[in-house]
Amino acid sequence: MSTQNIINQIENDAEAEVKKLGEARDQAIYKIQKDYEQKREKSTEKISAKLADSIAKVEGRAETFTNMEVRNDLLRGKHAVLTAAFDQTIANLFASKDYEKILVKLLKKASKEFKEGTVVPAKGKEDETKKALKESGADFELAGRSAHIKGGFILKTPSVELDFSFESILGKELWGDLETELSQLLFN
Question: Are residues 2 and 91 in the same domain?
Answer without folding.
Answer: yes
